Every structure is written in C-alpha cells, then in structure tokens.
Amino acid sequence: MVVGGLCALVHGAASPLMLLVYGMMTNTFVAYELEVQELSNPNKTCINNTIAWTNGSQFVTSDNGTVLCGVDIEAQMTMFAYYYVGIGVGVLIVSYFQIALWVTAAARQIQRIRKTYFRKIMRMEIGWFDCNSVGELNTRISDDINKINNAIADQVSIFIERISTFFFGFMVGFIGGWKLTLVVIAVSPLIGLAAGLMAMAVARLTGRELEAYAKAGAVADEVLSSIRTVAAFGGEEKEAERYDRNLVEAQNWGVKKGTIIGLFQGYLWCIIFLCYALAFWYGSKLVIETKELSPGSLIQVWGKLTSL
Predict the structure, then answer these.
(1) What is the CATH number of the domain that holds 180?
(2) Is 262 left (phi over 0), alpha (psi -120 to 50) or beta?
(3) Domains: count for the chain
(4) Are 102 and 154 in contact (CB under 8 A)?
(5) What 3-state DSSP class applies to 45?
(6) Fewest CB within 10 A of the end CB: N or C in the chain?
(7) Please, what are the averages of pLDDT over each run of 10 residues along the chain (308 residues)?
(8) What's the domain range around 218?
C-alpha cells in the first residue's frame, strides 16, 4: 500500500508536468509564427537570433521590445516529443504498480473481512438468528463487502493520485501565474461545496438502497429454501408480491440517488465551464494588456487549474 501510494503520487504529478511541457511548446509555436511573420518583410533579416533591418539596425516593436528569431522548430518539436514519450513510459509503469498493489492489498483485506464476518456469525446465539434473516446475512456478506472492496481497492490509489495532481497543479499554477491562479481559486469553493453535498446524499441513499436489496434477498432466500411448503399452500403469488415490494423500495431509492447525481453533475459542469470562461477572459488581459503572462504560460496555468 505504501509503494502503491508513492506510485499514485508520481502519477498525479505527471499531469501538471505534461501541461508544463505543453506550455513550453505553445511558446515555441508562437515565437516561430512571429518570426515567420516578421521575416516575410524582405527588409528584415535575422542577426544574432534577433530580428533586424537589412541595413544592420535593430528592429524595435511598438512597445520598445525586440523579436527573437532563429527558432529551430523541427528540433524543438523532436525534443518535446521525447519529453512526452518519457512521461508516457513513466506513467505506464507507475500506474500499473499503483493499481496492482492496491487491488492486491484490498483483496487480502476483503478475504480477512469475510472470514472474520463468517466466524462471528457462526458464534452467535441461536436466538440471534430468530431476529435476523439468514438470507439478509447472505446478501450482506456478498454485496456489502463488495462495496467495501470497491472503496478500498483502486479507488484509494485514484484518490491519492487526484490529491497529488491537486497540489502539484496549484504549485505550478502559482509559479506560472499567481494572479490567474488566485482568480480561479476564488470560484473553486462552489465546486467543493457541490461535491461534498453530493457525496453525503449519495452515501445516505446508497445505504438505504442496500438495506432494501438485503430485505429482498432475505425474502428470496427464505422462499426458495422452503419452496415445497410455499407451493403446497399455493403462496407463490403472495411471496412474489412480497419480493416485488422490496424491489420497488430499492428502485425508488436508486431513482432518487440518480436524480441527485444528475442535478449535482449538471451544476458542477456549469461551474467548471464558467471557470473556463473566467480564466480565458482574465488571462487574455494578462497576456495582451499587462503582458504579465505569455500565451504558453496562460495555457499552462489554465490547463493545470482545469485539470484539477
């Protein structure tokens, strides 16, 4: 679990690293395009990696700046391609160990939980079984423990990976453009609040749904184990109706859970796209008006924040 957690941390840092390379690549494209545009004028040439007039005087832009030239676009793109290949190979290795080690640990823990649960049931007093249906116990030892397995297997490693992406993304975002990062952070509590409320509602409704399915499983086990008696008294329809009532209850809880998830998902994506609009609007001002960010830095900061 420790090794798998470390691999998840490295995997989470890969996304900000990839966007960092992407920002550098964007700056290279912009610099190359500016060079092509300036050199399209026959009176300009490239001297010592700077655009100059053919008479030897230095070319100065309207804001008293110079334009760099001599960008070897093919060599730069080859270098960026190597960067992406290295990141891809690294992610392939660490993501495999991240998932495999956590799933292995979860399988061992689930095996222990099942054994402990079964031993505990076998040691109960006989009167306890009069108050608890055997069918419900069978359902819980199967479905509920599977839910635990789903929670402690790859989901934990993915959670660690997301936390790593969160911290590394904000760290690189503050380094690349702290103003834009602060503006986007100001909206993030709305996303966190919605995610927290959705998690609480889904957890509560999932518990109700599992209880309803456990009752339905208890009815099915009870009827099937005594099917001769049920058939002898002609109680098939009655037992089927009793089973259906529990399924309807579980269905209602499932519908409520789906409705809440749908509403909160729509709200979350609405806020996320509004954050995109805000980031591009304010980021463009930092690039064009104040020139505090380059186009590559804008894409880099925006990509890191939106990937969180």
Answers:
(1) 1.20.1560.10
(2) alpha
(3) 1
(4) yes
(5) strand
(6) N
(7) 93 86 84 81 79 75 72 88 93 94 92 87 81 71 80 87 86 79 79 82 84 80 80 84 83 87 87 82 81 75 63
(8) 2-306
